[in-house]
Amino acid sequence: MLLEAPRQPLRFVDISTPKPNATQVLVKVSACAVCRTDLHVVDGELPNPKLPLVPGHEIVGVIAEKGKGVQRFKTGDRVGIPWLGWTCGECEFCRSDRENLCDRARFTGYTLDGGYAEYAVADERFCFPIPKNYSAAEAAPLLCAGLIGYRSLVKTGKAKRLGIYGFGAAAHIVAQVAKFQGREIFAFTRRGDSEAQQFAKSLGAVWAGNSEMQPPEKLDAAIIFAPVGGLIPLALKAVAKGGTVVCGGIHMSDIPSFPYDLLWQERTLCSVANLTRRDGGEFFEIAPRVPVRTTVEIFPLNDANEVLNRLRNGQIHGAAVLVP
Ligand SMILES: [Zn+2]
Ligand SMILES: [Zn+2]
């Protein structure tokens, strides 16, 4: 599926199968999960996408062909292709273990073609082997919702009581890892979304309520996955002294002004950008041990526009996955 201009529906077009260069693999796509970031790209909320563009950055598939320099994988291996598609290895961020902030980073499904397609190419150095106990559709959401969710979770340090605002794809994965680590989950959803609140409780949340509510006890940290700036003052209010609020999304509506009192007493507010390959390695080590189970709704690739609409309207529980 091709995005020709922001705010336009995706179109299904026949394009020739891409050729892998020396360090790339050609992957026959088995499944590609749909992320809120895809919606931000399609809606024109992120600057300078590659155009025309094949969206999608949570890809699982099988290597059909490989470049001459490919060493980690062989033809027939199953791999996952994440959002971080390429980094320069030379800038100050790359050289200080912060490749997620690379000045010249390229991103799958944004500045590189992604996985809403039958085939995708990817640099092998940024692909991950997929644990055997996951089907392709179950594994696809791990590649962004899982990885970036995990990075957000790490940013909360040792927080015991953890708030999660927005209970979609990332939250449903993070909640499982957090519970495994002995944390207590407090889930915040859109007002009246009792289905999402039930879903959170079924995954072990000790409390679930509307975003405007204050939890029954002060939290040690909160992660905001919903793209709503107005949640930041609410989350700061919900955390105790010294607490942390992590914004896990790539885009948010403007943050309303709020009194300094909400930040005072060493509360921390930070964002999480992208992922590093180390995050991926750690997450794919822990995920099968939890074991993280993903709740997926599977759609044919041709339904991509419809799926994006459903995601926009909060009508997906767990993660949506496109299958060619
Ligand atoms: Zn760099
Ligand atoms: Zn994503």
Strand content: 15-25%
Rg measurement, Å: 19 Å
Question: How far apart lie the N and C ends?
Answer: 10 Å
Could you tell me which ligands this complex binds, including any ions or cofactors?
zinc ion
**Roughly what is the average pLDDT, rounded to an integer?**
96
Weakly predicted, low-confidence segments: none
- Estimate the helix proportion, in percent: 10-25%
Please tell me what the overall shape is.
globular
- Series of H and E elements: EHEEEEEEHHEHEHEEHEEHEHE
Tell me the layout of helices and strands.
Layout (H helix, E strand, L loop, with lengths): L23 E11 L1 H7 L16 E8 L11 E4 L2 E3 L19 E2 L11 E5 L4 E2 L6 H4 L5 H11 L5 E5 L3 H12 L3 E6 L4 H9 L4 E4 L8 E6 L6 H8 E9 L20 E4 L5 H10 L9 E5 L3 H9 L6 E5 L1
Parallel strand pairs: 8-9, 8-11, 9-10, 11-12, 12-13, 14-15
Antiparallel strand pairs: 1-2, 1-6, 1-15, 2-3, 3-7, 4-5
Helix pairs in contact: 3-4
One zinc ion (ZN) binds next to loops.
How would you concisely characterize the structure shown here?
With 324 residues, the protein is of the alpha/beta class. The protein has helices at 36-42, 136-139, 145-155, 169-180, 194-202, 231-238, 277-286, 304-312, and strands at residues 24-34, 59-66, 78-81, 84-86, 106-107, 119-123, 128-129, 161-165, 184-189, 207-210, 219-224, 239-247, 268-271, 296-300, 319-323. The strands form three sheets. Strands 1, 2, 3, 6, 7, 14 and 15 form a seven-stranded mixed sheet that branches. It has a six-stranded parallel sheet with strand order 10-9-8-11-12-13, with helices on both faces. Strands 4-5 form a two-stranded antiparallel sheet.
